[in-house]
Amino acid sequence: MNLTLNVNGRAVDVDAEPHDMLVDVLRDQVGLTGPRVTCGVGLCGTCTVLLDGEPVSGCILMAPLAQGKEITTIEGLPEDDEVVASFDRNHAFQCGYCIPGMVLTARDMIDKGHACSREEIREGLGGNLCRCGCYLKIIEAVEEAAQ
Amino acid sequence: MTWHLPTSVDDVVRTRAERPEAPIVAGGTFLGILVRQGLVEADEWISLQRVTELTRMHSAGDLSVGAMVTHRRLELDDTVRTIWPGVAAAFKAVASPRVRNRATMGGVLADADYASDPPSMLVASNAVAEIASVRGTRRVPVEDLIIGHYSTSMEEDELITRVVVPRPTGAAVYRKLRTRSQEDRPASSVAAVVHGETVRVVVGAVSDRPYHFADVCSQWRPGDLDSAREIGEEYASRIDYIDDNRGSAAYRRHVVGVEVRRALMAVAR
C-alpha cells in the first residue's frame, strides 16, 4: 500500500501495509531514529510521536491510521525548543534512550496546560519509563520548562 | 491488502456485511498489539478514521458518546467531569495519555477485554450501547453486551455506534487496584453508582466479564460499615476468579471484598 504521511512538516511517500507499525515506517523508510522500539505493546513510551500534537505509541499504531495527520518526531521540534533546553540544563538523562518520548510527552503536557504541578507531571509521565532512573531530574526539567 | 475508508455508518455496515472477515479498526490500540504480535491477520481492513459522525458527543440530557470518542476526551471534558465524574475517572484510569489519545468508547466495549477499566463503570451507570447493521439499529445494555472473555452479544455484521449513559442521580466512585505500575491494567476494577435509594456495584478485571449482583446490592444500608462489609464479602465469594500476572485468584478474592466495601463507604459520603 502506498501511503503519504505528513512528517515534521513535509509529505513523505512510503510503502506500508496495515501490519506495519508507524514507528518501523518512520525508522526504516523515513530515516528518523528518534522514536525507538522497545516494549512493542505501548507501555514504555520510547516510541512516542505526536499525532496532530497528541502523543501516541508509534509501536502499536498501524501505519495507515496516521494518514491525514501531522506526525511530529523529536527531530521535528525546533532546535531552541524550551523543553529540550530544560532537559539539557537539568542534566535530565543518563543514556538518553527514553528522552525523545519524555520530551514529546512533556511538550504536549505543557502546551495543553497539564504540567501545573509536580503531581500532574508525575501522572502525565507515568507511561514513560526511564531505566536509568532519572525521574527526579526529568520532573524538575519539565517543571522548569513549564514555568 | 485493502484498507477501506468508509465515511458514514451506512458505508461501514454495508462494507462489513460484504466482508465479515475484515476487522473493524477504531483507535487501533488493542488491534495494534494483536497485529504486531501476529495474533490477527487480514487481507482487508475497515477503518473508522473518516467516519466523523462517530466522533460526536452530546451531554445536554443523558451523555451520548459516539463510538470514536477517545478516552482522553471523556477524561478531560468539563461537563463529563462535573456530571459524570465516575465515567471520567474510569476512562482516565486507562494506561497512559498515549493510549487514551487513541483508544475509543466503541473499541473498549467491542474488544470486551476483561482487564479494561471502563466496562465496570459503564455497567454500574446503566449505560446502553446502540448497535447498527444493514438490518437496522438496536439498543443493548452494556451489562448484556459483554458476555465473556473477548466476547460480546453482537452479531458479526454489527457495529457499536454510540453509548448512552443516563444522567446520574447519586454519587459514583471508581476504584482501580494496580499491583504493578502506574500505567498497568487493573488487578481489580470496582465501580459503585448510587441510583436513588439503591446502588449498583460492578466488579471487573477479576474474571471473564464485569459482575453485578442486584440481590446483594439491594441489602445496602447507606453509610453502614457492616452492610458495606457484608456486601463486599458476598461479592468476593460469588465470583469465579482468574489467575494472571496482576494477581492470583486467592488474592483477588480477598481484595474484591475490601475494594467493594471501600467503594460503598465512599459513595455514601
Helix and strand topology:
The complex is a heterodimer of chains A (147) and B (269).
Chain A: E1 2-7, E2 10-15, H1 22-28, E3 48-51, E4 54-57, E5 70-72, H2 82-89, H3 99-111, H4 118-124, H5 135-146
Parallel strand pairs in A: 1-5
Antiparallel strand pairs in A: 1-2, 3-4, 3-5
Chain B: E1 2-4, H1 9-18, E2 24-25, H2 29-36, E3 44-47, E4 57-58, E5 63-66, H3 71-76, H4 78-83, H5 85-92, H6 97-100, H7 105-111, H8 118-124, E6 128-133, E7 136-141, H9 142-145, E8 146-148, E9 151-152, E10 159-165, E11 172-177, E12 188-195, E13 198-204, E14 211-212, H10 214-217, H11 225-238, H12 249-267
Parallel strand pairs in B: 1-3, 2-3
Antiparallel strand pairs in B: 4-5, 5-10, 6-7, 6-10, 8-9, 11-12, 12-13, 13-14
Helix pairs in contact in B: 11-12
Q: Mind explaining what this structure looks like?
A:
Helix content of chain A is 32%, strand content 16%. Chain A has 147 residues and is α+β, with helices and mostly antiparallel strands. Chain A has 2 domains: 2-76, Beta-grasp domain (Ubiquitin-like (UB roll), Roll); 82-146, [2Fe-2S]-binding domain (DNA polymerase, domain 1, Orthogonal Bundle). Chain A has a 5-stranded mixed sheet, covered by helices on one side. Chain A is globular. Chain B has helices spanning 9-18, 29-36, 71-76, 78-83, 85-92, 97-100, 105-111, 118-124, 142-145, 214-217, 225-238, 249-267, and strands at 2-4, 24-25, 44-47, 57-58, 63-66, 128-133, 136-141, 146-148, 151-152, 159-165, 172-177, 188-195, 198-204, 211-212. The model of chain B has no long low-confidence stretch (mean pLDDT 97). With 269 residues, chain B is α+β, with helices and mostly antiparallel strands. In chain B, 36% of the residues lie in helices and 23% in strands. In chain B, α11 (225-238) runs antiparallel to α12. A 5-stranded antiparallel sheet of chain B has the order 4-5-10-6-7. In chain B, a hairpin with a 2-residue loop joins β8 (146-148) and β9 (151-152). Chain B has 12 helices and 14 strands. Chain B folds into 2 domains: 2-165, Uridine Diphospho-n-acetylenolpyruvylglucosamine Reductase, domain 3 (2-Layer Sandwich), CATH 3.30.465; 172-267, CO dehydrogenase flavoprotein, C-terminal domain (Enolase-like, domain 1), CATH 3.30.390. The A-B interface holds A 1, 17-19, 21, 40-43, 45, 48, 51, 54-57, 59-62, 64-65, 67-68, 105, 108, 123-124, 126-128 and B 1, 3, 25, 28-29, 31-33, 35-37, 41-42, 45, 47, 49, 72, 95-99, 101-102, 181-183.
